[in-house]
Design a protein that fits this description.
It is built from one helix and 28 strands. It is mostly beta strands and 294 residues long. The longest helix has 4 residues.
């Protein structure tokens, strides 16, 4: 069955971009309802979460093999431990995804919408629960054995987004994206601070050590000294063709997934953009593995 929305991008020696659909290699698997939701690399192998399961890329890179059906959602890795978030909290596997145990002590909101492993710290963003806990950001410094809420003070009793959607790390700080706003966690006392500017499109990424985001169709970079946004390139940069919905940066390229217009790529720091394929498709997640963009 086709894993909808899963494509590999290769740059040929002639500079042409080609995309190939990839499949889940088990006949009894039902087609994923919403394609790829997250990617992560564990012990040199690429893993993908869909709406129903976690899959691993085959050794020859041609197809996906189902790894786990009981859990699926945002993914994170610290050392050899794999973490998956879902509406029931965080789950941890220490054997590559074959067996799982819950890791929820202190996680007062278990509707997990995004995960990230930064150094030895695991971060979990959550979504608001109807007549229940508000959205929040939790951290665990012991591989999910315990969690601490980090957003009680900056968001206040009646504020905050409906869902935390993405994390990034750069310049020693952790960044979170939620509903058009970007927040920074850092400082001697470890607090969240909302950055000026925006509203921003979904997706943040670190390019050459600096945080980048998209606002009003243009790529911006954050000055780490002043925490202010500036154009990512000098002059008058070209705008993106559609609203950004995902971002990934390699050493020399920035990829942006868009709503309804496929993937855009820049090789000059955001001064200009080129179509990189998948026209008329919405792209919600991007990841680079083995020289291929997924």
């Amino acid at each position: 069955s086709l894993a909808a929305g899963v494509y590999g991008r290769r740059v040929s020696s002639h500079g042409y971009d080609t995309w190939a659909g990839q499949f889940v290699r088990q006949e009894r698997d039902l087609p994923p309802v919403s394609g790829a939701e997250a990617f992560v690399e564990l012990r040199g192998t690429l893993l993908m979460a869909t709406a129903r399961a976690v899959h691993r890329l085959s050794d020859d890179g041609s197809s996906w093999e189902t790894l786990a059906r009981e859990v699926s959602g945002p993914l994170a890795v610290i050392d050899d431990s794999l973490f998956v978030g879902d509406s029931d909290g965080v789950h941890r596997s220490d054997d590559g995804g074959f067996t799982w145990r819950r890791a929820v002590w202190g996680l007062t909101n278990r509707r997990v919408s995004c995960l990230a492993g930064v150094g030895r710290t695991l971060w979990a963003g959550t979504g608001a629960v109807h007549q229940g806990p508000r959205a929040g950001i939790y951290r665990s410094d012991d591989l999910g054995e315990s969690w601490a809420l980090t957003t009680a003070n900056p968001w206040g009793p009646d504020q905050g987004p409906d869902e935390v959607e993405a994390f990034a790390e750069s310049d020693g700080s952790v960044w979170a994206y939620a509903e058009g706003a970007i927040w920074r966690y850092g400082g001697p006392h470890g607090k969240w601070q909302q950055l000026d500017g925006g509203p921003f499109d979904k997706g943040i990424a670190t390019y050459r050590g600096v945080l980048h985001a998209v606002a009003e169709g243009r790529l911006l970079r954050l000055d780490p000294a002043t925490l202010t946004w500036e154009p990512a390139s000098s002059g008058a940069p070209e705008p993106l063709v559609a609203r950004a919905s995902a971002m990934w940066a390699t050493r020399d390229r920035i990829y942006v997934g868009t709503e309804g217009q496929g993937v855009q790529v820049s090789t000059d720091g955001g001064a200009s953009w080129a179509h990189a394929g998948l026209p008329k498709r919405s792209v919600s997640v991007l990841y680079e593995y083995g020289g291929v963009i997924y």
